[in-house]
Design goal:
There is one protein chain. The chain is mainly β. It folds into 2 domains: 13-104 and 144-172, Proliferating Cell Nuclear Antigen; 187-324, Proliferating Cell Nuclear Antigen. 14% of the residues lie in helices and 37% in strands. It has helices at 4-8, 19-26, 94-101, 137-140, 198-208, 264-268, 271-276; strands spanning 12-16, 34-39, 43-50, 54-61, 67-70, 89-93, 119-120, 126-127, 145-150, 157-163, 166-172, 190-197, 215-220, 227-233, 236-242, 249-253, 258-263, 279-285, 290-297, 303-310. A 9-stranded antiparallel sheet has the order 6-2-3-4-20-19-18-12-16. It has a 5-stranded antiparallel sheet with strand order 5-1-9-10-11, with helices on one face. One of its GO terms (cellular component) is checkpoint clamp complex. Belongs to the rad1 family. This is SsDNA endodeoxyribonuclease. InterPro entries: DNA_clamp_sf, Rad1_Rec1_Rad17.
């Protein structure tokens, strides 16, 4: 537990002028009831996992907060301030955190701008324009202040919310982390990188749901058909095909044909990010590990990123029944 000195100077404290902004970002990974939190000097890293075959990552950069303070523990000998293994990490109830952040009431954001001016640079990095986003106050109304603090290892995560003169204090119990390994995407061995509007991916995934599919197959090829999403289910099969038109696929880097299959319900779990993001970068490495990285515009003209990783079905199991399916475990590499 924290000492009196630590209580006066917590290990971490931050203030945001928008509890709604934090809520909408963290809700993107609400497919799991729990999340791991890592406090770093550059921001907060939230991660959720599903059966070692899906992970969702949200990084709340310190620029999202009006104030952000991380104090290195005095009893810890840390030589490298950038070493992630030295930063505090703990697990919390993500569902409880989301309930706390919306305690003053947050309506679902159904308005999604279809006129984003954001684009990607030549190197594949996201670049942003001045387009409207779901986070702007004209969509959300007035925003409430949120203060986060963590006194010391083992202490609860404290949350204070203030809006129109009303203050609410909450403490969330912290637990030992259950996982530390990420599902690795081999960026140096990418088999494909495609950048497109997130709303188009969202529409395609929803269209395929009509067959009640259990699996989603993603195929990319340097020749037609260039990029397809297909599904099979008890109600039939369906396929959505995208042409190579730069108006559809802003970036298309596919040296050779790739075909990988994933659990449809897991891909569907990224829908909240698809709904509010302006762009998505769809990357796949040579092992078939899939990354969906969403660029989400936030208040003040900035951007945040939400990254999902998915492990594919093993190719030899593609014809097996659902009960016998196994997936390639690359998360322990």
């Amino acid at each position: 537990m924290a000492t009196d000195g630590n209580a006066e100077r917590p290990l971490f404290s931050a203030v945001s002028n928008s509890a709604r902004q934090l809520f909408l970002l963290l809700r993107c990974i609400s497919f799991a009831p729990k999340a791991q939190v890592q406090i770093t000097q550059k921001g907060l890293r939230f991660s959720a996992e599903e059966s070692q075959v899906m992970q969702g990552l949200v990084f709340l950069e310190k620029s999202l907060f009006t104030s952000y303070t991380y104090t290195k523990p005095v009893n810890e000998n840390i030589d490298d301030d950038d070493d992630e293994d030295t930063f505090p990490i703990f697990q919390i109830s993500l569902s409880s955190l989301l309930e706390t952040l919306q305690i003053f009431g947050i309506n679902d954001i159904k308005d999604r701008s279809t006129n984003h001016e954001a684009s990607y640079g030549a190197n594949g990095a996201f670049a942003r324009g001045g387009a409207a986003s779901a986070f702007e106050t004209r969509f959300l109304g007035m925003t409430g202040m949120c203060r986060l603090s963590y006194a010391a290892d083992g202490d609860p995560l404290r949350i204070t919310l203030e809006e129109t003169g009303v203050t609410t204090n909450c403490e969330l119990t912290t637990f030992e982390p259950e996982f530390r390994e990420e599902i690795l995407l081999q960026r140096e061995n990418l088999a494909q990188k495609i950048i497109m509007r997130a709303s188009w991916l969202h529409d395609a995934i929803n269209e395929l749901s009509s067959t009640s599919p259990s699996r989603l197959t993603i195929a990319a090829s340097p020749s037609a058909p260039y990029f397809t999403l297909s599904s099979n289910g008890p109600l039939g099969s369906a396929m959505v095909e995208f042409s190579k038109d730069p108006q559809l696929l802003e970036t298309f880097q596919v040296p050779s044909r790739t075909v990988n299959t994933y659990k449809y319900s897991l891909i569907k779990s990224a829908s909240r990010a698809m709904e509010i993001a302006s762009k998505v970068s769809i990357r796949c490495d040579e092992q078939g590990v899939l990354s969906l990285q969403f660029m989400i515009e936030v208040e003040g003209g900035g951007v945040s990123f939400v990254d999902f990783r998915f492990v594919p079905y093993l190719s030899q199991d593609d014809e097996g029944d659902e009960e016998g399916d196994t997936v390639e475990d690359v998360g322990s590499e």
